[in-house]
């Protein structure tokens, strides 16, 4: 079980979401006659109150902590066994124990709570400054049953949270697929139809020229048909390349973004040298990813920065990554709140992009100067989506562009 600050806070919140906890604590108090009852999360170094009923002004509220070494729960975590004390002053084992002396109680009972996977969660406990009759099957059986009931509710909450996360992930994948389908439909209805229409047109011209024996027209029409067929072939090749950019059986591996960047810079060494580009990079994250796809993403982003440099200015490209905190993640509804992310940024001083084009640059679009499709940035978006992340850009025309890729670390 994770003992990070975030996970512990989640545990406190989960206990608060179990509607039956106040009732359990009330039954404990009424059945035992004890004034303080609580559900505590106990780790190797912390004791945190999750649910509390306090009729003796002990002073704890949900989220408050006691020093672990001042509690008996520390020993319960190690032994995995309950501790039951009717009358501290007459108990041979605990009469000189530091915990009762510090907190001033005479009766004490604490039952370990184990999760469904067998790991230790914490305790269901009660104390009172007066003695109480606790060492009997009825009281111990009730605490055992309540501890198991809390464990059951925690498991149900965990399963519900996991299903919600999976549903959220599925919805994000579905939205991404819908966007791709819309692009495919647009290309099928427009970009793929145009070369086919021209091939049919010049085929008719070719047939008529052949009937007339017009060799010049035959050669001209055949050349155009060949050109349009080549363009259609490139369109299909690019689409196949894009549609094949899934995960399939590719394994996620521990991926050092620094090593990926070094390899990409080696591949682009010639244009970097020709343009006199400066590549400034800080130490990047290591993440779980598909290395080949991340290499393709970084290649396209760096190549894009080189390609769209200003004619009279040597390119300067800064590459760095940073952690995103929970508050940062919540700003992006496409991301899963339960995951940890880093943001990989590529900043350049190139020609920039007009504001109304910033969203369109990630779509599959026809190239303006050659056959085929412009799919580099579209591939970047698909790779980011494959990894459960996002990509976006900010730009100031004439001054440069920043591409941000947000990727899960784990």
Written account of the structure:
- By secondary structure, this protein is an alpha+beta fold.
- It folds into two domains: 5-161, GAF domain (Beta-Lactamase), CATH 3.30.450.40; 245-410, Heat Shock Protein 90 (2-Layer Sandwich), CATH 3.30.565.
- 47% of the residues lie in helices and 21% in strands.
- It has helices at residues 5-17, 21-32, 73-79, 98-103, 137-191, 193-212, 215-243, 257-267, 269-274, 291-307, 326-330, 376-386; strands spanning 36-42, 47-54, 65-66, 83-85, 107-114, 120-128, 253-256, 278-281, 286-289, 316-324, 341-347, 365-366, 373-374, 390-396, 400-408.
- The strands form four sheets. It has a six-stranded antiparallel beta sheet with strand order 3-2-1-6-5-4.
- A hairpin with a 6-residue loop joins β12 (365-366) and β13.
- α8 (257-267) packs across α10 and α10 (291-307) runs antiparallel to α12 (376-386).
Q: Assembly type of the shown chains?
A: single chain
The computed structural class is: alpha+beta
> How much β-strand is present in the residues?
15-25%
Which CATH class of the largest domain applies here?
A: Alpha Beta
Radius of gyration: 33 Å
- In angstroms, what separates the terminal alpha carbons? 16 Å
Number of strands: 15
CATH architecture descriptor of the largest domain: 2-Layer Sandwich
Q: Share of helix among residues?
A: 40-55%
């Amino acid at each position: 079980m994770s003992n990070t600050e975030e996970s512990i806070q989640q545990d406190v919140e989960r206990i608060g979401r179990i509607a039956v906890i106040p009732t359990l604590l009330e039954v404990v108090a009424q059945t035992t006659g004890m004034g303080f009852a609580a559900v505590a999360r106990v780790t190797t170094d912390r004791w945190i109150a999750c649910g509390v009923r306090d009729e003796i002004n002990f002073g704890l509220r949900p989220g408050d902590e006691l020093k672990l070494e001042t509690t008996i729960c520390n020993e319960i975590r190690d032994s995995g066994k309950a501790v039951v004390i009717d009358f501290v002053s007459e108990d041979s084992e605990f009469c000189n124990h530091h915990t009762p002396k510090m907190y001033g109680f005479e009766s004490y009972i604490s039952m370990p709570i184990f999760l469904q996977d067998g790991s230790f969660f914490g305790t269901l406990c009660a104390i009172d400054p007066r003695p109480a009759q606790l060492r009997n099957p009825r009281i111990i059986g009730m605490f055992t049953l309540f501890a198991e009931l809390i464990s059951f509710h925690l498991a149900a909450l965990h399963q519900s949270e996991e299903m919600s996360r999976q549903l959220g992930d599925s919805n994000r994948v579905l939205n991404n697929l819908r966007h791709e389908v819309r692009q495919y439909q647009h290309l099928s209805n427009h970009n793929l139809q145009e070369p086919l229409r021209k091939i049919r047109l010049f085929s008719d011209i070719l047939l008529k020229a052949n009937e007339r024996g017009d060799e010049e027209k035959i050669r001209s029409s055949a050349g155009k048909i060949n050109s349009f067929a080549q363009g259609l072939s490139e369109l299909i090749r690019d689409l196949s390349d894009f549609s094949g950019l899934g995960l399939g059986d590719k394994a996620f591996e521990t991926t050092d973004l620094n090593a990926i960047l070094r390899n990409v810079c080696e591949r682009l060494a010639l244009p970097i040298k020709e343009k006199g580009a400066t590549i400034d990079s800080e130490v990047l994250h290591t993440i779980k990813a598909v290395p080949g796809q991340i290499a393709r993403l970084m290649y396209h982003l760096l190549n894009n920065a080189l390609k769209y440099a200003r004619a009279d200015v040597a390119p300067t490209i800064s590459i760095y990554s940073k952690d995103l905190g929970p508050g940062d993640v919540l700003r992006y509804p496409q991301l899963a709140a339960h995951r940890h992310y880093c943001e990989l940024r590529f900043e350049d001083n190139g020609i920039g992009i007009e504001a109304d084009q910033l969203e369109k640059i990630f779509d599959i679009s026809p190239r303006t100067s050659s056959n085929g499709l412009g799919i580099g940035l579209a591939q970047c978006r698909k790779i980011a989506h494959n990894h459960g992340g996002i990509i976006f850009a900010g730009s100031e025309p004439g001054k440069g562009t920043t591409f941000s890729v947000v990727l899960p670390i784990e």
